[in-house]
Amino acid sequence: MQRLIAELRNSGIADEAVLAAIAAVDRERFVSSPFVERAWENTALPIAFGQTISQPLVVAAMTEALRIGPRMKVLEIGTGSGYQAAVLAKLARRVYSIERYRPLSKGAERLLLDLRIHNVVCDIGDGSKGWPGQAPFDRIIVTAAADERPQALIDQLAMGGILIVPVGRDPTAQVVERIVKSESGLQRDTLMPVRFVPLVTGPLPVLGQG
Description:
The chain is an alpha/beta fold. The protein has a domain at 58-194: Vaccinia Virus protein VP39 (Rossmann fold, 3-Layer(aba) Sandwich), CATH 3.40.50.150. 26% of the residues lie in helices and 27% in strands. The chain is built from 6 helices and 9 strands, in the order H-H-E-E-H-E-H-E-H-E-E-H-E-E-E. It has helices at residues 2-10, 16-24, 56-66, 83-89, 102-114, 151-155; strands at residues 45-46, 52-53, 73-77, 94-99, 120-124, 137-142, 157-167, 174-182, 185-194. The strands form 2 sheets. Strands 5-4-3-6-7-8-9 form a 7-stranded mixed β-sheet. Strands 1-2 form a two-stranded antiparallel ribbon. The longest helix is centred in the middle third of the chain and has 13 residues, at 102-114. The radius of gyration is 16 Å and the shape is globular. It starts with a helix and ends in a 16-residue tail after the last strand.
């Protein structure tokens, strides 16, 4: 783990709170059993339903770009293994996380409770629609690539809030965008190239919904 933290520092991650959150979350608990020995490598690893647990550098960089404060309410789109939610939970007051695959959501929920992380609320749904009943959010992070900037999420962002979202239909040309919402409009910055699974929209799958 210390080697990974050193690698993140060397790659430009400077926020000590983010580094401490990465160090405090046992990534081994979130990876699939065949990949446990690789849990602390700086690489993405596969999980169920064609999803992945993101590369730690990407998790750290996107989390750092959110500029989370301890009293903030954060929305995560794409719970997956629960790893990113666990990192966010170390920094924010409360995290709301949406996942379209029920087994992933329920598995992450159980694991987070087992790890005594009690400030994450999980739900199952179409993440592109956000979580209107809990809006507005101080920060929103999307852990899958949207074809275009998701307007529903921008609408649910509080004034002064930050949205971090990978954008790009072509997986070889995706970038992470940071969108800051203010009274004068939206400020957009491109942060880094990435390769994420696509943000799937529309009706939820029948598979795993029982």
